[in-house]
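S1.2 Input.
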Amino acid sequence: MPFSPEARATLNHLTEVPTGSFRFVALDVETANANASSICQIGLACVQQDNEIQSFSMLVDPRTRFEPFNIQLHGIGPQTVRGAPGFVAALEQILPLLRAHTLIQHSSFDQKAIGAACRVNKLPTPDLRWDDSVKIARRAWPELRGNGGHGLANLKKVLRLEFLHHDAGEDARAAAQVVLHAEQRLNVPFEDLLTPQSKPRSTTNPKREANPDGPYFGAVAVFSGQLDMPRERAANLAARAGMSVRPKVTRKTTHVIVGDGAMPLFAGRVPDPSEFGGHVQILSEADFRQLMEIAGLKL
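S1.3 Output.
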């Protein structure tokens, strides 16, 4: 269920950007539509030296359209961001904190979104130190590969984390908690966990025809990036749910599903939906799993 304004107001987040020196800062963003640049919320989780977490979130007016899918996902719409700062003003508020710390994101999407928003607003992309809690989680819990994966939704169940998914401040806090749990499990500081990962699995794109009786018949899906679920299995599930699966994005594409640890790199950038008919939805692997569960399919 998306957040109501009343529910969002009850979240225990700071209303001013935290100050001080922290072990690391986790960052998460929510977007108004499939364009990574359409940031409508930024969340920060600042981990103190004693591992206590200061959470901060702010709404951002993306000054662009909100898609119904995104509103349904996070509950933020045009009315929610009325009066909120634009991205330029928002970045100015948090940039000193970001520059001073290692930043943790759960997947590479948040870094790409900040970079995309800078380009749209004709700002230089800041030189920041980014690392990925998905990679840390894969090292700490390798048994989850193919068994629910390393997305926040599955880690919430496995690690018994308490957070409200798809709120930027809550997701940032969850990413920070993942790092702290990994440190405890492996008994090493997070800096030592940020090592190159094993060779990625094959990303060959399968092709499947849709089940005409599936609830999502008419959708055309493309898989991109490294998935925790085997590509063949993901394609079979999508087809059973009524999605046609194709090896590359075209004007007929309606959904691009990417691994929780990566965003698609089409010529080095996230695709502009306007180039493909204007209706492409970029979903994480966790969102795809949720769609399959709604369709009644066993994962």
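S1.4 Remarks. The first strand starts at residue 24 and ends at 31.
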